[in-house]
Every structure is written in structure tokens, then in C-alpha cells.
Design brief:
The chain is α+β, with helices and mostly antiparallel strands. Helix content is 20%, strand content 33%. Strands 2-1-3 form a three-stranded antiparallel β-sheet, with helices on one face. It is flat and about 35 Å long.
């Protein structure tokens, strides 16, 4: 379960799948889909994104961003 964070807690990171152009939808140029996370450590999120990229035929659409609640 996710809890509301106050300013004293560290940032959370997540892996998102990003699509561009016509794949994003009619009125959007870019759309992100939450894929994995959140992670408290940036390195853990980066490692997960790399694993996903490798397991999906080197798809570079997996990116790490700050977690959006």
C-alpha cells in the first residue's frame, strides 16, 4: 500500500514505458505507462529498466523517472 510522503522522505523512482507519435494516441505526442516500482534507490530502478530492455529485445522505451503518485 502506498502512503503519502512528506518532504523529509527520499525520492522514489519507477520504470515507465514511453511511446511516441501515433502509438501514444490521437491528441498526444508522448505517453508514459507505469511499468514497475516504485523503488527507493535509483540504482534498483535502473537495473530493472535494463532487465526489461534486455528481456524485450533491446526495447529502449523503458525509462526511469521520478515516481508519480
Amino acid at each position: 500500500m502506498l502512503a503519502r510522503r512528506d518532504g523529509s522522505e527520499k525520492e522514489l523512482y519507477a520504470v515507465y514505458y514511453v511511446v511516441y507519435g501515433s502509438l501514444a494516441g490521437e491528441d498526444q505526442l508522448v505517453k508514459e505507462y507505469f511499468w514497475a516500482g516504485p523503488y527507493g534507490e535509483l540504482k534498483a530502478a535502473v537495473n530493472k529498466a535494463q532487465d526489461l530492455k534486455t528481456s524485450h529485445d533491446n526495447d529502449s522505451s523503458f525509462v526511469v523517472r521520478r515516481y508519480k503518485e
